[in-house]
Design brief:
This protein is of the alpha/beta class and 420 residues long. It is 36% helix and 17% strand. The chain contains 14 helices and 16 strands.
Length: 420
């Protein structure tokens, strides 16, 4: 593999182009394993950024893509529809709460978030509430890297550099009450105050339900979401759930919102949606929201990506969603949760460890300082487990098909990383 061309000419995510951190050359992948150019294999303990939850190269998904590629690889979605988009809609409607039934496909999670935000603004605009032109979000949140999605993410870090460019939204302190702790009513006070003070300027609140991912790795109490639903209703504010990381089983329920039995007005999905094969996401609105935006057919939703509802991606996603009925992912995720909780408990006593959290197929060790990228690569290669700690988190989000002996290798590697 010509890694000099990579080193000299390719930019990798969140990395400098000069003196970049080491990368592995991947040549193939199947199930939980990624095969490397030098012949080694790594267990993919983070499902390739959380998306390959049914394992790499699932034959069902590949067959769907192959079959579709022989018929129609792409056609614009304005003025056309096609079988894979319709089949995927049918699969999604079987899984979604009945209230969420208008699906707008986008080509990545960040774009789905942009679409959800635009829907919320257009909804309020159509009702004549033009002052409701901003959103409220949670500190510690992550909604993507495009300008609009970044503006809704935790206002630390990237906001400083891009502040001249970002629309200004409202932020409430992140939920602190732990998932399994007794609910503390004070946890919702910051959001309640924010809505009391500014609801007339707020079109919608956006939140990652139960699990705040990339900017916090925080697992919080579902009661927060019930309070949030109630407060949004009282203040005539829409509720958007970003289920891009949590949707399709990651937290042990089909959707993370199911822990609270709360349904938003708009929901974003992505990542596991297309089974880690092709890029696809969606913003899904309630019929009420889409009806108001549509103003009886006079109002169009103003968005249209070139590759919207790409047939290959839709075929992959329909197969991926169908897989949820083909194996017992719930039981797998529950067993992984129990095992990771048991095996990581002792990490709590390590000197550099601040916290250990596990929910579904998500395990997080929060440390004071993560090891250098060279040290991470050394430990990862020694254990044959692919992990990529960042911020203050050593975390795993393995595929739902990971067997017990491989989960053990993952937790061993995590503990060694936590040692430093
Ligand atoms: C990954 C992620 C996104 C962004 O999705 P992309 O496909 O990377 O654009 C948005 N929200 C959440 C919660 C995510 O985890």
């Amino acid at each position: 593999m010509h890694t000099k061309i990579d080193r000299d000419h390719l930019w990798h995510p969140y990395a400098p182009a000069v003196n970049p951190p080491p990368v592995n050359g991947a040549v193939s992948a199947s199930g939980t394993h990624i095969r490397l150019a030098d012949g080694d294999e790594l267990i993919d303990a983070i499902s390739s950024w959380w998306c390959a939850a049914h394992g790499h190269n699932r034959p069902e998904i590949l067959a769907a893509v192959r079959g579709q590629s022989e018929k129609l690889s792409h056609v614009m979605f304005a003025g056309f529809t096609h079988g894979p988009a319709i089949a995927l809609a049918e699969e999604l409607l079987k899984k979604l709460p009945p209230r969420l039934n208008r699906i707008f496909f986008a080509d990545s999670g960040s774009v789905a978030v942009e679409c959800a935000a635009k829907m919320a603004i257009q909804y309020q605009f159509a009702r004549g509430l033009r002052k409701k032109s901003r959103l409220a979000a949670l500190r510690g949140g992550y909604h993507g890297d495009t300008i609009g999605a970044m503006a809704l993410s935790d206002p630390g870090g990237m906001h400083t550099i891009f502040s001249g460019l970002l629309p200004k939204h409202f932020f409430a302190d992140r939920p602190k009450c732990r998932f399994d702790a007794e609910w503390d009513d004070a946890d919702f006070s910051p959001m309640r105050k924010l809505l009391d003070d500014h609801a007339d300027e707020i079109a919608a609140v956006i939140a990652e339900p139960v699990f705040q991912g990339a900017n916090a790795m925080n697992i919080y109490h579902p009661e927060y979401l019930r309070q949030l639903r109630r407060a949004c209703d009282e203040h005539d504010v829409l509720l958007i759930f970003d289920e891009i990381a949590t949707g399709f089983g990651r937290t042990g329920k089909l959707f993370a919102m199911d822990h609270a039995e709360v349904v938003p007005d708009i929901m974003c999905i992505g990542k596991i949606l297309s089974g880690g094969v092709l890029t696809l996401a969606a913003a899904i609105a309630s019929e009420h929201v889409s009806d108001v935006i549509s103003e009886g057919g006079r109002g169009a939703f103003l968005h249209g990506p070139t590759f919207m509802a790409n047939p290959l991606a839709c075929a992959a996603a329909a197969a991926s969603v169908r897989l949820l009925d083909a194996y017992d992912w719930r039981n797998n995720v529950l067993s992984m949760e129990r095992q990771m909780r048991r095996e990581l408990a002792e990490a709590r006593d390590l000197a550099g460890v601040d916290d250990v959290r596990v929910l579904g197929a998500i395990a997080v060790i929060e440390v004071k300082k993560i090891p250098s990228s060279a040290r991470v690569m050394e430990i990862v290669r020694k254990h044959g487990v692919w992990l990529r700690p960042f911020g203050r988190w050593i975390y795993a989000m393995p595929p739902f098909i990971t067997p017990e002996d491989e989960v053990k290798l993952i937790t061993d590697a995590m503990k060694e990383l936590a040692h430093g």
